[in-house]
Specification:
The radius of gyration is 16 Å and the shape is globular. The strands form two sheets. A five-stranded mixed beta sheet has the order 5-4-3-6-7, with helices on one face. Strands 1-2 form a two-stranded antiparallel ribbon. Helices cover 38% and strands 16% of the residues. The protein has one domain: Glutaredoxin. It is built from seven helices and seven strands; from the N terminus they run αααβββαβαβαββα. By secondary structure, it is an alpha/beta fold.
Amino acid sequence: MRKWFTLAAAAAALGAALVVIVDYGEDTEESSEALEAYMEAGGIERETLSEEEMVSLDPLDGVGSEPGMQAPDFSLPTLHEDQLSLADLEGDYVVLNIWATWCPPCRDEMPDFAAFYEDYKDDGVHVLGLNRTATEPGIDAVRQFAEDFSIPFPVIIDEEDVVEDLYSVYVMPTTYIITPDGRVAMNRPGYISYDVLEEQYLSIREQYEDEA
């Protein structure tokens, strides 16, 4: 079932999101439940999370999405039908962005991810866009979105919401930065701009390499 998601705090953005969900959702009752959960949670504004909760390189035991934990591995197809495994990218930095076509902030931030990829693709960093395909009206909507935004990095297809469970995704979009040793260094729910993404990546990289 589609879980609740985050938007910019403005009421207008929330209203726009509702329209998109109702248009794309296969079940309006399910969409209503998602909206109700969002409202009960008070909107999940980012200010409720401290920087320490979103970013950390201190190692933690176990596998999970909490900063410091070993990032859960997954192997899923891309839009080009090849299989991509997170474990295959160990040794490099990974920026993992989880999104959906019906999510307005996902659309707003996608050009920034494309620009970040172009700027850092030769810097030992991979950008992965993981689409929650299980929540989409069909694969054609994902293909159209990727075409509209000229997404230059791999678009991963998750038709069974595998990563939602592995990474305990409860906000759309959510972005993770994973270090070369395979640990989550950043788990940031909600919209992220180019400037913030770049700042976090460079800070994490500097700290990781200082400690190596």
